[in-house]
Design goal:
Layout lengths: L1 H14 L4 E3 L23 E3 L5 E7 L4 E5 L17 E9 L7 E11 H9 L4 E3 L10 E5 L1 E3 L4 E6 L3 E6 L5 E5 L1 E2 L2 E2 L1 E2 L6 E2 L4 E4 L14 H8 L5 H11 L5 H12 L5 H13 L3 H10 L5 H11 L5 H12 L5 H14 L5 H6 L6 H17 L1 H6 L6 H12 L6 H5 L5 H12 L7 H10 L1 H14 L10
Parallel strand pairs: 3-5
Antiparallel strand pairs: 1-2, 2-3, 4-8, 5-6, 7-8, 9-17, 10-11, 10-16, 11-12, 13-14, 15-17
Helix pairs in contact: 3-4, 4-6, 5-6, 6-7, 6-8, 8-10, 9-10, 10-12, 12-14, 14-16, 16-18, 17-18
């Protein structure tokens, strides 16, 4: 849900002239690493490289201006790592299916400044609730009270105690109180204003429907930010300078990467910026990080390489993937990043590791192969005839995800019994109407495989498919 919300805020910022990038790595993605937990620098989710504004994204199923907060650990305070001028963006999300990634974000985004939130927090204009069953030391839920329109309409009256608006659908009146738990809210609309479902009409802090991009700050701003004593500032600067041009930016990145007293993730971001420019000083440092004593640093390096689309990155990832001395989750991370690169030259290496025992490596290799299969279905299919059975399993699974399944390519060479069985699986996993001509040709060429395919289709299209017992 968080990723879906952050992506929507990206789109909203772009629509208002911003140039947003992902500041907190992984905030827009659905990938979760289960064994090696990366403790990243605490920064907002999004940075507008053009104007320098940072946005902390919050996705909610029910609108409220709320944050988790620790009273005992400063690093887990609601505003840790945030500047006064940073924004908090809140977007509503709803489920679209049963899969973990099945979330849809509504278009409307509400923005607040951290300065305003801090001011209200300091004045006690918030509510604090401890989650049910929480022990001492658990985080609190801090809420800045607000009133939300549940339907569209037009404001008809504002008094000291309530805002009233007339609903569009039935012309009835809805009244929203301006006092919540003894805290007075400030109206954010005027009489006659049109309101939309989900819009904040009153709050203890100013709420904005959009934020226009400000004046460009340029690379000089980020170079100055690199000298900040604040870690999140230096990390932000490295992220921005990674994509900005100019010799001054290169010198600044080299300085940050070379500073042995700097945080490792700031140094890695600086190295990534150099790698994108083809500077060997960056790739040499990332290579060292892939052999770091700490697995979290190795994994972060592997993930960063998936964002740098050049041959050096490809070679480093393939080497890490095929290295039997590497930790399995680092090899899995390398497999994942090869899928992010989308380079056909990684096909062979991904197929090769299907012969490893570790399921984590196999699974990530198969997922990446599926991504590559969308771009290079013919090349992926060409690896099938000479592959071993375990390799064919991964190739077959990846091919079933392809939007343009190259059936003729798969069938152009004689296959052994194992290969014919996997062909049956690949075809049987498709919709019968999608490959009518190819299946008719298969009926003449290999009746046994044709029979297996039709049996699979019958089962998968039956009403019993997916039926569970409770």
């Amino acid at each position: 849900m968080g990723a879906a919300g952050t992506r929507q805020i990206h789109e909203d910022l772009s629509a208002h002239g911003h140039e947003p990038i992902e500041l907190e790595r992984g905030s827009t993605g659905f990938k979760i690493w289960k064994e090696i937990k990366i403790k990243r620098v605490r920064v907002p989710d999004i940075l507008c490289v053009r104007c320098g504004r940072r946005v902390e994204a919050r996705a909610k199923t029910k609108f409220e201006i709320s944050m988790s907060h620790s009273q005992s650990t400063p690093e887990r305070g609601w505003d840790f790592g945030l500047r006064d001028e940073d924004l908090v963006g809140i977007v509503l999300c709803s489920r679209t299916g049963q899969e973990p990634t099945s979330w849809n974000a509504l278009e409307m985004v509400h923005y607040m400044t951290v300065r305003d939130l801090r001011s209200a927090f300091a004045k006690g204009m918030v509510t604090k609730e401890k989650p049910k069953g929480a022990e001492e030391g658990f985080e609190l839920r801090v809420t800045w009270p607000s009133s939300i329109a549940t339907r569209g309409g037009r404001v008809s009256e504002i008094s000291s105690s309530a805002i009233k608006y007339r609903r569009i659908n039935d012309n009835g009146t809805t009244s929203l109180g301006l006092v919540r738990r003894g805290i007075r809210l400030k109206p954010l609309v005027e009489v006659g204003a049109e309101v939309h479902a989900g819009q904040v009409l009153a709050s203890v802090v100013p709420v904005h429907g959009y934020i226009e991009c400000g004046e460009p700050v340029g690379s000089e701003y980020y170079i100055r930010l690199l000298r900040s004593v604040d870690l999140s500032d230096r990390y932000t600067a490295c992220k921005a300078l990674t994509i900005l041009t100019g010799p001054e930016a290169v010198e600044a990145l080299v300085e940050r990467q070379s500073d042995v007293n700097e945080h490792i993730y700031v140094r890695l971001e600086a190295a990534a910026g150099l790698m994108r420019r083809g500077d060997a000083r960056g790739s040499d440092f990332v290579k060292l990080c892939l052999a770091d004593d700490y697995l979290t640093n190795r994994l972060e390096a592997a993930i960063i390489l998936g964002e740098i689309k050049n041959k050096t990155s490809l070679d480093l990832l393939i080497r890490a993937l095929k290295d039997p001395e590497q930790h399995p989750e680092i090899r899995a991370g390398a497999a994942y990043s090869l899928g992010e690169l989308g380079n056909r030259d990684s096909l062979e290496a991904l197929v090769e590791v299907f012969l490893t025992v570790d399921q984590r490596i196999r699974a990530e290799a198969a997922r990446s192969l599926a991504k590559l299969g969308q771009k290079f279905p013919e090349e992926l299919a060409s690896t099938f005839p000479t592959a071993l059975s375990d390799q064919r399993a991964g190739i077959a699974w990846a091919l079933t995800r392809s939007q343009a399944l190259p059936i003729r390519k798969l069938m152009e060479n004689p296959l052994d019994e194992d290969g014919r069985q996997w062909i049956a699986f690949i075809l049987g996993s498709q919709k019968p109407t999608a490959y009518v001509e190819e299946v008719e040709e298969l009926r003449k060429q290999d009746p046994e495989v044709y029979f297996a395919v039709t049996v699979l289709w019958k089962i998968l299209s039956s009403w019993i498919n997916g039926l569970e017992e409770y």
